[in-house]
Amino acid sequence: MNMEHHYAASPAETVALGEAFGRRLSGGEVLLLDGDLGAGKTAFVSGVAKALGIASRVTSPTFTIVNRYTTGRVPLTHFDLYRIADPEELFELGWEEYLSDGGVVAVEWFRNAGEELPENYILITLRYQDEGRSITIQSIPPEGETAL
Ligand SMILES: Nc1ncnc2c1ncn2[C@@H]1O[C@H](COP(=O)(O)OP(=O)(O)OP(=O)(O)O)[C@@H](O)[C@H]1O
Ligand SMILES: [Mg+2]
Fold this sequence. Notes:
Elements: E1 3-8, H1 11-22, E2 30-34, H2 41-51, E3 66-69, E4 76-80, H3 95-99, E5 104-108, E6 121-129, E7 132-140
Parallel strand pairs: 2-5, 2-6, 4-5
Antiparallel strand pairs: 1-7, 3-4, 6-7
Helix pairs in contact: 1-2
The structure holds adenosine-5'-triphosphate and magnesium ion (MG).
Magnesium ion is lined by residues 41-42, 60, 80, 108.
């Protein structure tokens, strides 16, 4: 997969795209979600959670920074680094452990992790477009370990 382009006309379509994408995950993938405030990052992750068989409602970890879901076929760790001031704070949150536990890790506001990002990841870019959102999915590097 190089780059996939999608368009979600509604919040439900963003969730559905996350769900379709999530079905392709087997565990160990890191999803970095790029997009402005309210672009739909959390909505997309909630679809991924559904595909992993997680029944609980996915809420934004804006205040808790990390939410863990362990009732699906693989664990899902959902980070929102909006409130991180220094990448050093990540280590107290279990960042390294979660990135290597064989589950799926989804990260909103990943630029606040500075240099602490993995070499292989899937970049999901959400942009406001018309009344909905454009959503692109790409493996970085294109032929990396977790390339889809
Ligand atoms: N395709 C879409 N079309 C229109 N609205 C959408 C779409 N996808 C999501 N939304 C809406 O955008 C709002 C913000 O969604 P969400 O919380 O998922 O964004 P976010 O990127 O996680 O925001 P934040 O940066 O605050 O974490 C929600 O009301 C959601 O329903
Ligand atoms: Mg969010």
